[in-house]
Amino acid sequence: MSSYLPGTDMTRFIRELMEFVALSDDDIEAIRRTAPVVLAHEDAFTRALYDHFLKFEATARFFLGDDGRPDAAKLERRRHSLARWLRETAEVATTQEFSYYLLAVGLSHSHRADSRGGVVPPHFVVGAMSLAQTALARLFRETLGDAGRALEASQAWNKLLLVHLSVLLLGYVPPARP
Ligand code: HEM
Fold first, then answer.
1. pTM as predicted
2. Does 174 map to a domain?
3. Is 2 a residue whose pLDDT tops 80?
4. 135 Cβ below 6 A of ligand 1
């Protein structure tokens, strides 16, 4: 791995990190094989995540309307965006288009200030990825009917989710200069 500035070549950044976390062909196969299970529960997954965000004042404020109550339309839009990310994640896309989509998602948290909530604090993005990992591990345990396969799927998804997390954090963390 040679040095370069992350953000200048997102496809390479993602490819290198996938290599670093040892996301193997078997992992990619496990993710694609379990994608139908994940996508069948997409609605419950996105609902659970946003219900969780609404439980805490610090995260709920991003989803409230002017009357201070949860804004159903805003929540629906956010759930829709999250579902798109989940679908694209399940495909393990590594194209240039996907890489910059992911960077744009990150920047919308780190740079696009919301009138009520401000910029999304990075520790909640990290926390949300932990919630996603936990939800998927539970789903695999409950649906795959085999502890070994559930573990294999969780490990593979965990690797990929943390590669994504690194991209989502790029807008917060100034890249170290080579
Ligand atoms: C697993 C972590 C997360 C993922 C994968 C994720 C995914 C997304 C996606 C795909 C979008 C749409 C981006 C766009 O269209 O440009 C979005 C927007 C947004 N997300 Fe997240 N999100 C995560 C965590 C969070 C957290 C923790 C919060 C706040 C508590 C949050 C609040 C928002 C808000 C307010 C927007 C709208 C930003 C704007 O004004 O455009 N997200 N998110």
1. 0.94
2. no
3. no
4. no
79 is a domain residue:
yes
Range of the domain at 66: 10-169
Among 46, 79, 84, 120, say which to mutate for ligand 1: greatest number of ligand atoms within 8 Å of CB.
Answer: 120
Q: At 173, is the pLDDT very low, low, confident or very high (cuts 50, 70, 90)?
A: confident
User: How many Å apart are CA 68 and CA 64, to the nearest integer?
Assistant: 5
Distance 2 CA to ligand 1 centre (A): 31
Q: Which atom of ligand 1 is nearest to the CA of 59?
A: 30
- In a domain? residue 177: no
How far is Cα 123 from Cα 73, in angstroms, rounded to an integer? 25
Tell me how many helices (H) and strands (E) the chain has.
8, 0
The answer to the question of residue 52 being in a domain is yes
